[in-house]
Automatic annotation (TrEMBL):
InterPro entries given in the database record: C1-like_sf (IPR046349), DC1 (IPR004146)
Pfam families: C1_2
Region (Disordered): 192-218
Keyword Mitochondrion: no
Taxon lineage: Eukaryota, Viridiplantae, Streptophyta, Embryophyta, Tracheophyta
The DC1 domain, residue ranges: 18-64, 75-122, 132-182
Compositional bias annotation for Low complexity: 199-218
Record's keyword terms, sorted: Repeat
Membrane-spanning parts: none
Record organism: Solanum bulbocastanum
Stated name of the protein: DC1 domain-containing protein
Length: 255
């Protein structure tokens, strides 16, 4: 009786985000005014909450606020992607590898490969159903054809597609679609499983060679335990051998 929910009080006071020096406060019913998210560059077209700093006119969707800092994405399996507030290029803009359009807001990036994707493109589903086609469409990270020189059109807008950009595709019907044709209003949603990248102590080692150890955070402990167990088994075998040898010596003395 008389207790207060500290978590709700903390939420009402606001939260700190790595992208902004000030506390971002929760904005209730943001549809009353037009706000644009600094992360995904999309306006508040729903009644979902926003976090913002009115002094700086800096706003984030709740989903964008909670986007992970590191992301393992199937489109770029060789390296984890890092969330950047500002593109690292001198132009302060990037071209999304997924939808082939420019971006100035947040991006998931691999600096080593100059690989950048929008937040909303990083969280689109791996399969989708659309009104224009009776079957489920699967997400492809580039041309679905073995011959990469084949040109093909989007079956929704009939525009020639860039063979490097992502698309939704039905292999049985040879039906393909731009991401933005299949998802008219993409927003940041559920991201794939992510984890902080583990530094590679050997820079000459292929990242794929240590992928198994990255998947199991207890791999080092298990390896140490297995070595200790093997050492104990060796000591036990040596002790048994000594007992056998001493028994043989005692039998010879009796003879």
């Amino acid at each position: 009786m008389g207790k207060q929910n500290k978590s709700s009080d903390a939420t009402s006071q606001g939260k700190q985000h790595f992208s902004h020096p000030h506390i971002l406060k929760l904005i209730v019913n943001p549809t009353e005014i037009v706000l644009t998210c600094n992360a995904c560059e999309q306006p508040n077209n729903t009644n979902k909450p926003f976090y913002g700093c009115n002094t700086c006119q800096y706003f984030l969707h709740e989903n964008c606020f909670n986007a992970p800092r590191f992301l393992n994405h199937a489109s770029h399996p060789s390296h984890p992607l890092t969330l950047h507030q500002i593109p690292s290029y001198s132009s302060r803009s990037y071209t999304c590898k997924a939808c082939d359009t420019a971006g100035n807001g947040f991006c998931f990036s691999c600096a080593a490969c100059e690989f950048d994707i929008h937040l909303q493109c990083a969280s689109i589903p791996s399969s989708i159903l659309v009104n224009n086609h009776p079957h489920q469409l699967e997400l492809h990270f580039g041309s679905p054809y073995e011959d990469k020189n084949i040109k093909y059109n989007c079956d929704m807008c009939n525009v020639i597609m860039n063979r490097d950009e992502w698309l939704y595709y039905c292999a049985g019907c040879d039906f393909g679609s731009h991401l933005y044709c299949a998802i008219t209003s993409p927003e940041v949603g559920v991201f794939p499983k992510q984890h902080r990248p583990i530094p590679n102590s050997n820079p000459n080692q292929n990242p794929s060679q240590n992928s198994n150890s990255n998947l199991n955070p207890n791999a080092s402990v298990e390896m140490i335990n297995s070595v200790n167990a093997a050492h104990e088994q060796l000591l036990a075998a040596q002790i048994r051998a000594q007992f056998v040898a001493r028994g043989q010596e005692a039998a010879l003395d009796l003879i």
